[in-house]
Amino acid sequence: MDTIGHRGASAAFLREDLGPCTCHRRIRSTLDVIANKWAVPVFVELVRAKGEPLRFTQLARAIPGITQKELTKQLREMEAAGLVLRKVYPVVPPKVEYTLTQLGWSLDPVLDALARWAATYGNVVADNQARFMERRKADGAAP
Amino acid sequence: MDTIGHRGASAAFLREDLGPCTCHRRIRSTLDVIANKWAVPVFVELVRAKGEPLRFTQLARAIPGITQKELTKQLREMEAAGLVLRKVYPVVPPKVEYTLTQLGWSLDPVLDALARWAATYGNVVADNQARFMERRKADGAAP
DNA sequence: CGGCATCCATTTTGATACTG
DNA sequence: CAGTATCAAAATGGATGCCG
């Protein structure tokens, strides 16, 4: 034990293996998968479907504000990573269905960890940010 | 049980509370804190310091490729959120020290979850992406 | 229906120079 | 030393229109 008291979890993700460099890359590669603007909304819809396939337009209508372009882009990215399965039916008019793969489902606990952190600390963070802005205004207004 | 077999974790982050909308916001608000390009590198350095304060230039030299501008921006953002403490010594030449706060340390298990997911599935994802690119080239080359 | 192509606005990032 | 200011480059996001 050292005398510097933060007392909590201490860098589990750093101790587990070879050092900060590998660690950066790993965290970053996970973020690259889930940090895009529409990644989470698309993900959540597919999760909510519980394995039922969803058609392109179903997803589009379920996610307010998304454009076809962005939805296409996001689905392609997830398909490329192997998180979703894209099934094309050779019919007219076209029919394409999307489902989460096993690999896709494996992200569920990760997203859960993010949601839980915000549930616990989100308000504190928002408060801090608000106060920080206040202080900046006060400091800027009276020099 | 339903007959559609994904068999794994099933939407823990959706069951815990009010629905997908709250869930989106929470996950997004956490991502807003950690998803910026330099957030993780800065974070990891502060974690590695184990509570020891780090000076601006120490951080800058420890993080290859970062510019002063980006480091300043990142540290300000983290300070605003209450994740780091910024201590200014009124001396010349200037001396400023940064440390993680308790709130900052609370992100450690979250980052750990991200690192662990990549440790488990990162190679599979990379493989999938490589194969996807191959397929795209093959399909484009022989129409 | 699903999706690609194009154009444009906004944001993010980087390089460089300057300062108390 | 620890920033700020300015400018340029690049990535991202949104709005349309067309097509099989």
TrEMBL record, chains A, B:
Keywords: DNA-binding, Transcription, Transcription regulation. Gene3D superfamilies: Winged helix-like DNA-binding domain superfamily/Winged helix DNA-binding domain (1.10.10.10). It comes from the Bacteria. Residues 21-126 form the HTH hxlR-type domain. The keyword Transmembrane helix does not apply. Transmembrane segments: none annotated. Pfam families: HxlR (PF01638). The keyword Protein biosynthesis does not apply. PANTHER family: TRANSCRIPTIONAL REGULATOR, TRANSCRIPTIONAL REGULATOR, MARR FAMILY. This is Transcriptional regulator, HxlR family. It comes from Chelatococcus sambhunathii.
